[in-house]
Design a protein that fits this description.
Chains A, B: Converts the preformed base xanthine, a product of nucleic acid breakdown, to xanthosine 5'-monophosphate (XMP), so it can be reused for RNA or DNA synthesis. The structure is a homodimer. By secondary structure, chain A is α/β, with parallel strands linked by helices. Chain A has 5 helices and 11 strands. Chain A has one domain (32-178): Rossmann fold.
Chain lengths: 193, 193
């Protein structure tokens, strides 16, 4: 998506350690007009599919998912919560996700009331790097018996391989920008064609 | 706002300890059509004011704020982040907020890049009870020299007093529903007229 790539080039910052900061428009300050256009793109890509629900993970995915939902007939958006601890009272689907940024595992939960076997789910998130967070969301869908119809991502770090692994497993991953390489010294970013 | 009150009556659950669960449509599963209508209501209420930015706090405020932003000319939405620890490198405004739900204080930050003295800010959040989170957001605005033009709330727990304290301080608080009392035994909820 040209608009997003240009925005990343203009307002993104490449840091050492494979970090791409896009907090000017994506995950601290949010450009809702851009989010709307992203939703339009995903709606075009997933047009042939039945989507009954959008599932994302707090916090950065929520705004993007809520803006995108308009383009899928205002389907409900459910955000998986990062929990302090896993509550074993049985009314939640739970998994754990390892965060490389925070260097620790954290529990992720979705209430059983809001995800079930009738759901056709579109997963949405801001970033896809190694794919750990998405694998967690997929696990929650499997636990609920829900089908994963597709995955919409704003920024995929192609060089970290998570997206291609998901594609090899048969998932329809629509990343609106795929960074193939980036250079913290020059700030240069190369996108996949 | 009739639609929201009816929805709270229908899908909300009153729990002991002054807890009102609205995770079916507000803060776990999100009804984006309702969020859109809420944005319309706030836009009507704050119509005479210049709003250049919406400020909220992760995680539950983000979806509501992003849907509301359309009705304010697609102004940027900034969400304050709950940090693990306060980073004193000087590029962030920081404060601490005490959470009664989690029974602890946590640091809240906004990057100095995304809030400044030129900003006319609308604060948006899902709940207003004692007002601790909002006071944190107001403090961040004051630190930035930004003016707080108004406060848009989905559910105010009127009996906890935070909203009326803010009104007494001169803030224009537009709560779309104000719960005056609720009964965990009967499930009955009374709204302020």
């Amino acid at each position: 998506m040209k608009e997003l790539e240009e925005r990343i080039r203009r307002d993104g910052t490449v840091k050492t350690g494979d970090v791409l900061k896009v907090d000017a428009f994506l995950n601290h300050q949010c450009d809702v007009r851009l989010f709307d256009h992203m939703g339009q793109e995903w709606a075009r890509h997933f047009a042939g599919k039945t989507i009954t629900k959008i599932l994302t993970i707090e916090a950065s995915g929520i705004g993007i998912a809520c803006c995108a939902a308009r383009h899928f007939g205002d389907v409900p958006v459910v955000f998986a919560k990062k929990a302090q601890s896993i509550n074993l009272d049985g009314d939640q689907y739970t998994t754990t996700v390892y965060s490389f940024t925070k260097r620790k595992e954290f529990p992720v939960i979705v209430s059983k009331k809001y995800l079930d076997a009738d759901d056709h789910v579109l997963l949405i998130d801001d970033f896809l790097a190694n794919g750990k967070a998405l694998h967690g969301l997929i696990e929650l869908c499997h636990a609920a018996g829900a089908s994963v119809e597709g995955i919409g991502i704003a920024v995929e770090k192609g060089f970290q391989g998570g997206g291609d692994k998901l594609r090899a497993q048969g998932y329809d991953v629509d990343s609106l920008s795929i960074v193939e390489s980036m250079n913290p010294e020059t700030g240069e970013i190369t996108f996949r064609d």
